[in-house]
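tokens incoming
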């Protein structure tokens, strides 16, 4: 199994990060740690260098921060990514979040920043990790304007119709541990083929266990739920989603 999106670099894991990584190693083939800004990007690289062949980094800028960030900061992140482009497996996360950003100016700045990183991924022929919340269709239309080789809509929670459009374009949808209890995410899994699916925790968020911090090892709960919904063997779901992740991220 592969957790294609988590934030092991967050302070939530400062107390027992090594234990969390060891639990992940006991169950998973790999973990992808997603940077969300200058500091997070740097920490994602450090984690990967300390855990070669198991933790892989992506570098990006979170859309909620993009709605109010200074242009010079965004430029610094772009330079940071370009300087480390050979060390990362994708650009992102980046995108548009209209759930948390309600004002038009903030949304405009989000989209403007998103385009910077989409163009960066296209220019360097890198996969792109998209965060889209209440803006899935708009994010898809934006991505389609560029020639990005691989696109991953992380923690997808949009409509089934847009999900099918994403897959028709040859892109991927990442199913989070929310599928363990969310009816909408269960419906998504029923409606879309496994061949376009990846699995993630988005830890420390979205725990499948009430009152418990999420962690990469819990991606097993997403795989288990998908197997149940699809009426398939756990091993087959594991095999297909792992192969998808290896192909998309070049692991």
């Amino acid at each position: 199994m592969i957790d294609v999106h988590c934030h092991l670099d967050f302070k939530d894991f400062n107390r027992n990060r090594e234990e969390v990584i060891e639990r992940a190693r006991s169950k998973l083939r790999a973990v992808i740690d997603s940077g969300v800004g200058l500091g997070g990007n740097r920490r994602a690289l450090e984690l990967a260098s300390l855990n070669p062949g198991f933790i892989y980094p992506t570098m990006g800028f979170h859309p909620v921060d993009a709605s109010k960030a200074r242009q010079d900061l965004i430029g610094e992140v772009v330079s940071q990514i370009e300087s480390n482009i050979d060390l990362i497996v994708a650009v992102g996360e980046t995108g548009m979040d209209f759930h948390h950003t309600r004002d038009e100016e903030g949304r405009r700045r989000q989209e403007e920043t998103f385009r910077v990183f989409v163009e960066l991924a296209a220019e360097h022929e890198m996969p792109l990790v998209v965060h889209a919340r209440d803006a899935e269709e708009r994010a898809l239309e934006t991505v389609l304007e560029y020639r990005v080789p691989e696109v991953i809509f992380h923690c997808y929670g949009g409509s089934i119709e847009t999900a099918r459009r994403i897959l028709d374009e040859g892109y991927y949808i990442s199913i989070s541990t929310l599928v363990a209890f969310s009816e909408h995410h269960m419906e998504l899994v029923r409606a879309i083929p496994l061949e376009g699916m990846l699995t993630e925790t988005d830890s420390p968020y979205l725990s499948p266990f009430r009152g418990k911090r999420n962690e990469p090892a819990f991606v097993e709960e997403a795989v288990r739920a998908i197997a149940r919904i699809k009426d398939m063997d756990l091993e087959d779901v594991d095999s297909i989603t792992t192969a998808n992740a290896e192909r998309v991220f070049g692991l």
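note: The first strand starts at residue 2 and ends at 6.
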